[in-house]
Design a protein that fits this description.
This protein is an alpha/beta fold. The protein has helices at about 45-50, 75-80, 100-110, 115-125, 145-155, 175-190, 200-205, 225-230, 235-240, 250, 275-280, 310-325, and strands spanning about 1-15, 15-30, 35, 60-65, 65-70, 85-90, 160-165, 195-200, 210-215, 220-225, 260-270, 285-295, 300-310, 330-335.
């Protein structure tokens, strides 16, 4: 288990002290896929660099399996870092080495013989689906393939924790989805705890079990992804979940209606729209006041605000119908949402 307790981090600049993290506390269970999300400047990258002690917190502690790594010597930290590996947006591969030698590199640093390192590296390249690219150089690979090599290299030391710092930000949506599926598979098969740092809602929605939202260096909200994204309590969470702004803008000309917010958390996207089916099957027509949805890997994510011109019974029936679809959450809301 990873326990981040009251962590603060200050940087001294020419213009004075900057507080990048402010009293951050987060608990991450073993084997979890945990998302840390926030806008640019929220403190995400600083936090991930504190977790592997590339940056030492100004205050607070970071405990891994009960050991406060902030108190460790540099020698002991080197051993811990073999268990906390990291992949980046820019891949950070050694361009002069082929894929095999890139993956061998951390194994050789750990004292493995060349034969042992080569055997393990080939196994890892197979795991990430690049067994046939062992002799290829990074420049000969696509972005997604380079990230797969980076993942194989990160797994070389049999880590307990994999840190992903904006690891899919440079990739197209299709490649992003394949990399996320690979990370999910690794998490399930190897039991590695995964921490994903991102500004992309779709990444957290599609893979993470729990999430913490950072805003201005502080934890604005945290919990299960479905709970946080379906019932955002903080202003920072609402900005991420509903990036188009408050629904007041959409309901100004819709007086006399009741409103239902519908959250799609990975519902199966089909050719038959849910709202149209409700009108046909239940006789309840809904006007769409607001919608921000997307399809990722055949699954729907995002939200809608529906206007219902009906009574209490119609609203209850609509909510029951909508929530009868797996991975769809619906609730009545007031105008001020």
């Amino acid at each position: 288990m990873i326990e981040i307790k009251n962590v603060s981090k200050q940087f001294n600049t020419a213009d004075g002290s900057v507080e990048a993290l402010k009293n951050v506390s987060i608990s991450i269970l073993d084997g979890d896929i945990f998302g840390i999300i926030g806008m640019s400047g929220a403190g995400k990258s600083t936090l991930v660099r504190c977790i592997n002690m590339l940056e030492r917190p100004t205050e607070g502690s970071i405990e891994i399996d009960g050991v406060d790594i902030c108190e460790l010597s540099e020698r002991d930290l080197r051993n811990v870092r073999r268990e906390i590996t990291m992949i980046f947006q820019g891949f950070n591969l050694l361009m002069q080495r082929n894929c095999l030698k890139n993956v061998c590199f951390p194994l050789e640093l750990a004292g493995k013989s060349k034969a042992e390192a080569k055997k393990r590296a080939l196994e890892l390249l197979d795991i990430v689906g690049l067994g046939d690219k062992a002799n290829a150089y990074p420049a000969q690979l696509s972005g997604g393939q380079q990230q797969r090599v980076a993942i194989a290299r990160a797994l070389a030391t049999d880590p307990k924790v994999l840190l992903c710092d904006e690891a899919t930000s440079a990739l197209d949506p299709t490649t992003t989805n394949s990399i996320l599926e690979l990370i999910r598979s690794i998490n399930e098969k190897l039991g590695i705890t995964v921490i994903i740092i991102t500004h992309q809602m779709s990444v957290v929605e599609s893979i993470c079990k729990h999430v913490a939202i950072l805003d201005g260096g502080e934890v604005a909200e945290q919990g299960e992804v479905t709970e946080v994204f379906s019932h955002p309590k903080s202003e920072a969470a609402r900005r991420l979940v509903f990036p188009e702004g408050n629904s007041d803008l959409f309901v100004a000309d819709m007086s006399g209606q009741r409103f239902i917010r519908v959250i799609f958390n990975g519902a199966e996207a089909t050719g038959s729209p849910l709202i149209a089916r409700m009108a046909v099957e239940k006789g309840i027509e809904a006007s769409i006041a607001y919608a921000s949805t997307k399809s990722i890997g055949g699954k729907a994510y995002g939200s809608m605000l529906l206007g219902i011109a009906g009574d209490d019974k119609d609203v209850r029936t609509a909510i029951e119908y909508l929530t009868g679809t797996p991975d769809v959450i619906a609730e009545e809301v007031t105008v001020n949402v």
